[in-house]
Each structure stands twice: as structure tokens, then as C-alpha cells.
């Protein structure tokens, strides 16, 4: 049986869910792929770190975390290493980087990834910051060393958007990708349609754990802007920065606007969209005007986040609650649409597992 | 640049569209994958056959076909070979098998595929008959010779359902797959909702080229049953036969039933469904009752085709006209849904291209 060794940087919700998923899927992976996965090192922010290149006892470590103990208390291995030291000392094939997202400078995620590549590890991440800010450099560094840099979980949790486009639609020319990419705002807009005002809907989203205590990143559209940036750079081959994404959130949408839309059979959705600059069609007042653009995404507003009125019966209109969905516009197939969960620790950990299987089984 | 050689059995709508797609995508494949594709042999039913292991001039051959000429008239090569002789003599990496579907015994498609495997070629097909009737044997034969047997185009044309499940959802346990898998019947049901009676809607579908002159295969559900069988055997690892699929078409659906459903916010859809016998949950009168089944799909009605009332605002309810869509129920992500075109020569040829890129680029 093939064994793959993983070092885990970050042991919050997603890191723990990934460790649990590796436990839960032990039999599945052995039967289906003749594969075993060992986690040899874990570095968390509050629960300490531990490295044992023979493999760590996951059930005990997850139990320790749940009990509020340091994870190093329940197993043998090298303890009290910094995350960087742990990655450097780990004899692993893959770094799974799931530390918190930082859209300002991408740290410490970017640093962890650089060290992993320097030590000949593949990298899987769900950390949006480094991918949004530094994808092209990291990808090229990996490629030069014949390593893989996998990012499925950065856009719509485990719903397989990146691999769908990169693998299944490999033969297609993508002209645009648009969609509902944030569950919190979609939930708020749906609740407003049921009669809640914005403040009450936001409060409910916070109570359900969808929205953060400081909801700015969601409701102002910054989270979606990061995902749009990832789709542009990682999928459509652009090289744009965060400032190139025009961004408007949902805070100006009033109950009155939502109800008027409803009466007309429409819904507001916070839509992230990226149009492929290589074969752009700009929609100008309902007509399509062909615009030739020399470099991908040279025009600022080709990557955008904004509330858009859509038909309630359309695919995007049909996404309710915290559902996410994308419309991928292709040359040969026209629109291909995919929807699934856009958040959740276990769902996001599934994206890491998908990337791992892609690295190992090709 | 890597060159891959293809022999093409079948030169009808899909075969011609594939040749055209290879022409149209020459630059795309060179730039994106450093790949060139040569078609070295073509065998059609009515337009003759030609083999030239140095590669055939596709533009001239497509032109000849459109002009009603024999394709061998416009190029050098060995002519008047039977399809079997042509496959045997072709120095090709891949057989693209796109002869007409035969659900009775799978011939001549199955024979062509066997010969290709015997001659160490990979096989890509959109031919439902051999895949529905003989998937497991053909797959195992390919596997024993370390060859690939790719079938993306057999289920929903180019919409990437097979690769989505096999690659992107590789880490998931699939409990069921259900969906709208036939454009003709979906079109008819949608037109009935607009006020046409069944006969008029069928006539309109025939005029638009969706339905055959003899529409039995579509309206009685046989086409969907074939696709359900493919999903069961090729994707869910079952080993069932056509007779194991319970099958009811749309011919008993009246305008009155459609209008009553509409008034209640529902729609009839012809749903093909396969439930994974390994972890089956039988839905009994709204409640879920766990049923343990020893062998996959041992219970006859786990693979079925029948008209089902669905909520008009649901994902399946939202599929209009000739659209196809699937709901894939997974252990970790819950429902993942995909929709796209389910028919069309160029769309189906795209599935062949996807399979080819998967074989060549991994």
C-alpha cells in the first residue's frame, strides 16, 4: 500500500476536520486507492505543535484538542517547535496549509508554503490570502521544482470548482466565471426576502455561525473579491491584484429593494464575476459589444463583486441560504453550472482530501 | 511537441464534429498542452473510409463529407478497408468509437473496442450500447493491458459528469445520482406546461431535431435507462443489466396532470436515478428507513427511470428545454449539482476531447 506523509500547518476548524476526515476515510482510501495517509506533524496556534515522522495518533490528538489540552500532551514526538521549524524538520510529501487567511500580506501562510517548496514538498491550501496575493509566484516556484500547488478549498469549500475547470473542462476556452461565492451574504439576502430587515438578518446569520462578529469581510464583498482574484489569476491565467477587483457589498441593499425585486420575480444576489480578458465580450446596456483586449484582464472592471438582480427562477436565483454556485461560460458547451456547499469545516477539509488524491493518484 | 494519433470509427454527426473540433482547437492545444492531435484513419458508414498513418487532411475530408462525396476522394491513403481492418492497420494511440448506439447487443461498437484493446490502443467512446451492456468486461480488459477506457460522452454529452465524479469527487462516497438525462423528454414536458398537448409538443421536438422520427427510445425512457445503467456500472461499481433498471417513460403524462402540477408549484421531470446499493437509504413514504443490502444494487428498483413531481424552484425543477442536470448525493458535501447541455454533435465531441486530454495529460 502506498503511504503519503502530510505535515499540517494550522489546527483550527479546518485542520481538525481534515485530521478527522483522514481518520474517517482510512478504510475508504485503502480499499479504493490502496493508499494510507500519515500526518507526521501538526502546528496549531493555541494547542501547540508536535512532530513525529513515524506518524501521529490522530484520534488522541483530536480528543486532546476537544478537551482543551495541548496536543503534544497525548503523544510522543518533538515538541514546542515553531511552525516554520516543524515544516523544515518534517519528512513529508505534502504541506497542508490551513492557517488563518490574511488578505493584507498573506503571512504567515506564504512563508510556510515557500519553506515547503524549498524542502521539496507539494502544498495544498485553503488559505485564501497567499493564493489571492501571490498565486503566480508560488505556482511557478512549485512548477520549477516539479511540485504541485493545489488550492481547491480556497473558492467554494469542497465543491469542486477548481478541478472541474482545470481537469474536466481542460479542453474549453472559458470566457467568464460568475457566481454566488459567499454563503453569509446569500443567507442574509434570502432572509430579507422572507421579511427581515438587514440588521436582523445579519444578527441571525451571526447567531447561526455563518457571519463573524465583525462581518465586514463578508458584507462589504471583500471575501468574494479574494475569491474572484483567485479565479482570475489561478484559473484564467491573469496577473491582477486585489485593487483591480471592483468591489461593492450588500450593505446598501434595503428591504424595500428586496421586496420590489421579489414582486417582479427577481432576487438580489452578491455576484462575483471574472471575465476572461483574452476573449472578452463587454455587456453594454443589454447589447453585447465585442472588445479586443491585448492582455488578460487589462481592464479594471472585468473582475468585480456587486449585488446583481437575477431572475428568481434562474440557476443563480435558485441558490438559497448558504448555498454557493458558479456559472462557467465556455466556448463549446455554453454555460456549465455547479452548485454545492460553500462553507463548513468538514466540507473545506474535503477539498484538501480531493487535492491530496489528485496529487497521489494523478 | 507531443503528438497523439487517433483512429476514428464512425463519421456521422459526432465523428465529423470531433474532426472539426480537432481542427478548431489546434492552436489552443499547442499553446496550452504542447500537444498536436493527428487523425490517421476514419471509417464511416456511408462516406467510405481512409487510412494514412502520417495523418489525414481534416479540412478536406470534412469538406468532402459536406459535399456528399466519399472522404477517400480527397486524400491519399489506404482506401476501402472495413472498419475492423482500418482499426487493425492503424498505428494509433487512441480509438475514438462513435458509431451508432445499439442497445440490443452493442455491436459493432463492442467489437471495435475489443480490437483496439487487442492492438494496444486506448478507447474513447460516446457509444452508449457497448458501455451500458458490457462496461465491466471492457474496463477490466483495458485495465489488464494498462490502457484507458473513457466514456464521458455517454451520459450528458460534453457536460463533465463522469470526470466530475471520478476525479473531482474522488474522495467522496456517493449514495445516489439522479437527474434529468434526456433533453427531448424535458423539452416536451416544458412545452406541455406552456399549453401544448403531448402530441403537439412531440411534433415540435421532432421539427427542432431533438426527437427522432421514431421517438420511442426517448419518450419510453429507454435512453435514460441506458444512461442510468452506465452510471450504476461505470461510476458506482455495480454489475447490473438493462433488465435491472425499472423504466417508465412520459407517455402517460397528460396536459391535465402537467397543469395541475404547475398550479401547485410543481413540475413533472423524467428522472433517472441510481442509488448506491452499498449504503442505501430507501425513502419510504417520506421517512428514511435504513436498509442493509449485501451486494451493490441487488434490489431491482434501485436503478430506475420514471416521471417524478419536483418543486419548480428546485435544481431539477429549474432545468428547462433541452437542459440536462444531475444531483450527486455525497457523504461529506451533501448534494453537488451540475447542469449543462445534454445533446448536440459539437457538445458530444467535446466529451471526446476531454477524455483525450485526460489520457494524454493525466
Total individual domains of chain A: 2
Tell me the greatest interface: A-B, 43 and 43 residues
Largest sheet of chain A: 7 strands, mixed
Strand content of chain A: 15-25%
Q: Give a count of the beta strands of chain A, DSSP E runs of length 2 or more.
A: 15
* Low-confidence spans of chain A: 280-301
Question: CATH topology of the largest domain in chain A, which one?
Answer: Rossmann fold
CATH homologous superfamily title of the largest domain in chain A: NAD(P)-binding Rossmann-like Domain
CATH class of the largest domain in chain A: Alpha Beta
Radius of gyration of chain A: 21 Å
Q: Classify the helix fraction of chain A into a percent range.
A: 25-40%
Average pLDDT metric of chain A: 92
Number of helices of chain A: 14
Span between termini of chain A? 16 Å
Which term fits the overall shape of chain A? globular
Strand order of the largest sheet of chain A: 4-3-2-1-5-6-7
- Subunit organisation of the chains: homodimer
Order of helices and strands of chain A: EHHEEHEHEHEHEHHEHHHHEHEEEEEEH
CATH hierarchy: architecture of the largest domain in chain A: 3-Layer(aba) Sandwich
Structural class determined from secondary elements of chain A: alpha/beta
Spell out the key features of this protein.
alpha/beta; Rossmann fold; 7-stranded mixed beta sheet; homodimer; 2 domains; 6-stranded mixed beta sheet; globular; 362 residues
Amino acid at each position: 500500500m502506498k503511504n503519503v506523509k502530510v505535515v499540517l500547518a494550522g489546527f483550527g476548524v479546518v485542520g481538525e476536520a481534515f485530521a478527522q476526515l483522514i481518520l474517517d476515510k482510512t478504510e475508504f482510501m485503502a480499499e479504493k486507492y490502496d493508499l494510507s495517509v500519515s500526518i507526521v506533524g501538526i502546528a496549531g496556534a493555541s494547542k501547540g505543535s508536535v512532530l513525529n515522522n513515524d506518524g501521529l495518533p490522530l484520534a488522541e490528538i483530536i480528543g486532546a484538542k476537544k478537551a482543551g489540552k495541548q496536543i503534544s500532551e497525548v503523544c510522543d514526538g518533538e515538541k514546542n517547535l515553531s511552525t516554520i521549524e516543524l515544516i523544515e524538520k518534517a519528512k513529508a510529501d505534502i504541506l497542508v496549509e490551513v492557517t488563518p487567511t490574511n488578505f493584507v500580506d498573506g503571512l504567515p501562510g506564504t512563508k510556510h508554503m515557500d519553506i515547503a517548496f524549498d524542502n521539496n514538498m507539494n502544498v495544498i491550501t485553503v488559505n485564501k490570502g497567499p493564493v489571492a496575493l501571490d498565486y503566480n509566484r508560488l505556482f511557478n516556484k512549485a512548477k520549477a521544482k516539479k511540485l504541485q500547488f493545489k488550492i481547491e478549498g480556497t473558492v467554494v469549500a469542497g465543491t469542486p470548482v477548481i478541478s472541474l475547470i482545470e481537469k474536466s473542462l481542460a479542453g474549453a476556452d472559458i470566457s467568464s466565471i460568475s457566481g454566488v461565492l459567499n454563503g453569509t451574504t446569500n443567507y442574509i439576502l434570502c432572509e430579507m426576502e422572507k421579511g427581515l430587515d438587514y440588521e436582523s438578518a445579519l444578527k441571525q446569520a451571526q447567531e447561526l455561525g455563518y457571519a463573524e462578529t465583525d462581518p465586514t469581510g463578508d458584507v462589504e464583498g471583500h471575501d468574494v473579491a479574494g475569491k474572484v482574484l483567485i479565479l482570475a489569476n489561478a484559473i484564467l491565467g491573469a496577473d491582477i491584484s486585489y485593487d483591480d477587483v471592483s468591489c461593492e457589498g450588500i450593505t446598501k441593499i434595503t428591504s424595500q429593494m428586496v421586496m420590489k425585486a421579489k414582486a417582479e420575480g427577481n432576487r438580489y444576489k452578491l455576484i462575483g464575476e471574472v471575465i476572461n480578458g483574452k476573449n472578452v465580450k463587454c455587456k453594454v446596456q443589454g447589447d453585447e459589444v465585442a472588445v479586443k483586449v491585448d492582455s488578460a484582464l487589462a481592464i479594471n472592471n472585468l473582475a468585480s463583486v456587486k449585488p446583481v438582480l437575477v431572475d428568481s427562477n434562474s440557476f443563480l436565483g435558485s441558490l438559497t441560504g448558504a448555498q454557493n454556485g458558479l456559472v462557467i461560460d465556455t466556448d463549446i458547451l455554453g454555460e456549465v453550472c455547479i452548485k454545492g456547499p460553500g462553507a463548513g469545516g468538514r466540507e473545506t477539509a474535503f477539498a484538501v482530501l480531493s487535492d491530496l488524491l489528485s496529487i497521489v493518484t494523478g
